[in-house]
User: Fold these one by one.
Assistant:
Number 1:
Amino acid sequence: YLPDEYVPDQRLRIDIYRKLSRVTSYDDLQDLRQELQDRYGPPPEMVLRLLDRETLKIDAAIWQIKEIYVEGHDLVFRYTNRSRAEQLARRSQGRLRVVDERSAYLRLPQEVGGPDEIHETAKSVLRPT
């Protein structure tokens, strides 16, 4: 979220959330990141996490993944295009398994527990290094 200390005016925070909801590309997100930097200074950790979450949404959209969530010990990727999901599964070197017409599963490592680690795991599949 955007902390009050970073963007004190509520109307401006709402405006930024609106802009964030319209972001559809890495360039859009970079422009917003630069705008925040220019207007409010270096973003605090909470804002960096918010922007990183938006990056993950863009990554998912490229692969036509509409939803990512945890189910038991798995990270579930709900997709709209099976061939894209199968392509992503091949790129993941077998880590991601397409299991039906709308879901692919990734077994979470035992040591993964918190939201940040889950986020990094999802990112590692959608955007391998």
Number 2:
Amino acid sequence: LHHLPARYEHETAEDTIASLVEDTIGSVRGVVVASNWASAGGFARGRRGRFQAVVEDATGRLHLVWFNAPWMRDKVHPGATVRVQGKVKRFNGYPQMAN
């Protein structure tokens, strides 16, 4: 019995944050400088909300967002070096990757 992956994702070469291009898949390495959990508030109960982090390298800042992922609070902390890959969008003037 063989177990094969459901999909293959090509690991791209690392870029700098300043060289990320909107609407393309990018990959960067940087240091987490801030992270927080933002609850949805209102009638939303339970785990709804988003985990946000900001990653910096020598060229700029990248905002990261994970929706409905409270478990990320225990995984990503300021001072940690991370490598992230995803589709780049712009939000509030900054490049952003969202799950």
